[in-house]
Structure formats: C-alpha cells, structure tokens
Amino acid sequence: MSKIEKTFPENFLWGGAVAANQLEGAYNVGGKGLSTADVSPDGILYPFDETMTKLNLYHDGIDFYHRYKEDIALFAELGFKCFRTSIAWTRIFPNGDELEPNEEGLKFYDDLFDEMLKYNIEPVVTISHYEMPLGLVKNYGGWKNRDLIGFYEQFAKTVLERYKDKVKYWMTFNEINVVLHAPFTGGGLVFEEGENKKNSMYQAAHHQFVASALAVKACHEINPEAKIGCMIASMLTYPYTCNPEDAFAAMEQDRKTLFFSDVQARGIYPGYMKRYFKENDITIVMEEGDEDILKQYPVDYIGFSYYMSFVASTAPEDLEKADGNLLNGVKNPYLQSSEWGWQIDPKGLRTVLNQLYDRYQKPLFIVENGLGAVDVVEEDGSIQDDYRIDYLHAHLKEAKEAIADGVDLIGYTSWGPIDLVSASTAELKKRYGFIYVDRDNEGNGTFNRVKKKSFDWYKNVIATNGASLD
C-alpha cells in the first residue's frame, strides 16, 4: 500500500483574517458614517437601543486606518500569501442610501490593497462583515426591508468595479447564518413587541441570499477571473449519546447552519427548511424571479469560520452546560475549553471540511480559526503564547489530514493575526494575534506592536508550507 501524501497544495493561501470595524478605528474620518458596530458597546449579542450613545472600542480599534503600512509590513514578514479584510460599508456609502459613493473611502482601500500587493499579498475581501450603515437600520428597518437588496447591490457593484484589478477573492457576507443568533449584528434587525422574530430573521436571510446572488452575478460580469464565495459560521454538532433522538437533534442543529450554504452553493431552498417553515408559521415573501436568481448565481467556493463544536441532547436539563460565542449548550466532557468557554475541538475541523466538501464538491477556504486568550507581557517584554501555538498546530494538522482525505482546500487565514477588538465582547483583553497591540479595555496604551512567540512559529509554518507541523 502506497503512503498517503499529507501536504498542503503548492499555491495554498496562507494568511490571516480581520474585519474593518474591529481594527480600523477612525470612525469619523474620511467621510465615514456611523455603523451598527459603532453602537454595540457590549459586542454582537447586544440588542439595539435607540438611546445608545456610548462610544465603544471599535471607534479607535487598533488604529489600523493610520498604521496599516506598518502592519502589512509585519504580515509580509510573516510570509502571508493573502490577507482577509472587509470594506466598511459606511466608508463607501455613509448612510447606505446615497446615490454616489464617498471617494475618500474608496481611496483608502485603493491604498490598502496597493500596499498589500506591493508585498505580493493577495487581498481576500468580505463585502459586508458585521457592519452596515446605521441609517439603513433607522430609516429602513435593516435587512427585513427588501430595499436593502438594492442598496447592497449598489455597494457591491461599486467595490467590485473599483478593485477589479486588485482583488481576486471575494465573499458576500461574513457568517451569514449569524442573523439567527445575533440579528442586530447579522441583519440590523430591531424587533417590535409581538413581532414574529423567527419570521423576520428568515425573511432578512432571504433578502441577503438574493443580494449575495446578485453580487456573484456582478463579480462574474466585472471580472470573470475573480472568485466569490459565501461565508458561514460553522457549528458542528455531535449527539450527546447514541440515542437516535440525540443523533437526529444533532443533524437538525447542523442543518440550521447548512441551510445557509445550501441556498448559496446549490441555489435552492432545501425541503427540510420548507417543512420547518410550515411547522413554525414562517412565511417567506419572495418576488418573482428570486428563485431563478438564486439558482443561476451560486457561489464559487465555501468560506467558513471554525472555532468550536457543540453537543445536542434531547434531555439536556441535568447535563453540564458550556458557554460559547453564540450558543450555549451541553458541555462535551471529552474536550477542553478556552478562557471564554469555547470548547476546543481540532478533530471537528477535519469533520467539517469533509462534511462541506462531500455536500458541495466546491473548493473550501478556512477564513477564520484561532484562540482568544489573555496574553501576559513578561518582564523582558516577550509574550510566551504557547497555548495559541498548540491550538493552531492541532487544527492545522487536522486540515492537512482533510486534504489527504481528498478535500479541495484553497487557503487558511487565522483569525486576528494582530490583536483587535473582539466581536463577541467588544473588548481588547481577548487577544488572538501573533502581534500584540498595546491597548487595553479602557482604551489606554500606546498602540505599539510587539511580536509574540507565535509570530515566528506561524512564519515557519508558512515558509515550509505546513511541513513544520509534522
């Protein structure tokens, strides 16, 4: 029997991933408008309130807007082949419904992408990442309103045309399925008393599906060589026992995520969701032509985040609970947890990769994976983050196994290669980076950048194309 080769592809896209609203800062610079992120002081689970005036850490971020050249140089030193970021919608259309884009905002991303390309770093760009103009929430009701499709399409066409010679990899919405778990963050949704929230969330999702398909159409027309994908928050679920009821509950939980990739990759609403809608009094209003649009313009690849797995039980009352980013559920007794209660499951990444590739037969891209932790600066100024190295090492080894399984994996971008403001908690003490940023939860610090121990480790992983993981 011949030995199975466990190697990453020759042109594998190694890099890191961020979101504009979590690191750029400069919230009122260059004509930028207020976004939903700017009024979410306690992270993505915070419900919107008209009285919100508190400025959060997003306003300064890590001042990437003014320091991006310094940071891109560090990414180049790491050997990045790509860098995933997003375009702040409010830099391009400050209120969301303007007829003409803001040239100063467009120029910023021209300069950013040029700086990346100077170092042969491929931009991987999310069009909408947990941020939308607050004006579209206040004046239109967010993604519940079909008008948002047109505003998003204008935004997408504007950036796709502007950066057609600089960006080859796009994604339409970050973690699009999060509209079910954090509806304000994912869809700018504000609910009225007595409103059928599930119906509103799935209606908003439908509008995003159509908008996503129209962005795919525009991308292929503007630059046929470009690739545009969806992006889901992967939430692998295990049955707590071998009771068939638990196994079915786990499948149903996974389908809540897979529904979003099913529609964007296959172009149809699956039968299991049609049944779910009937049984939960959910009526999706579709206009003539919507289903044709979804069918004609599926995504080119599946991007996804992977941080943890979950457990489903049909009798969870007496079982220990696990706290996580978006979902609280039954604790898996076989797994360790991070400081924030996220259960660490490297093998689950291999499972997800196989699950998605078996289902869609489309290229996959791990666009978020990482460990949020409290880092300590030692007396000598070093940061010994071996726990982060261990986490990433274990996950990347499983990604390599999945490639040997036959999965077409095109890239890996670790989440937060430089410390940034956490989306889930709007704090800076939850750090992900290979690069430390001197900034704390109270907004104190110099913004100075310091390499952690993991910096050299990841640099070596990239330089050896993953061979150092063995």
UniProtKB/TrEMBL annotation:
Q: Which keywords describe this protein according to UniProt?
A: Glycosidase, Hydrolase
Q: Which residues form a coiled coil?
A: none
Q: What GO cellular component entries does it have? A: cytosol
* Xref: SUPFAM superfamilies: (Trans)glycosidases (SSF51445)
Q: In the UniProt entry, which residues are flagged as the active site?
A: 368 (nucleophile)
From which domain of life does this come? Answer: Bacteria
Q: What GO MF terms are annotated? A: beta-glucosidase activity
InterPro entries according to UniProt = GH (IPR017853), GH_1_N_CS (IPR033132), Glyco_hydro_1 (IPR001360), Glyco_hydro_1_AS (IPR018120)
Q: Which GO terms describe its biological process?
A: carbohydrate catabolic process
What family is reported? Belongs to the glycosyl hydrolase 1 family.
How is this protein named in the record?
Answer: 6-phospho-beta-glucosidase
Question: What organism is recorded for this protein?
Answer: Anaerobacillus alkalidiazotrophicus
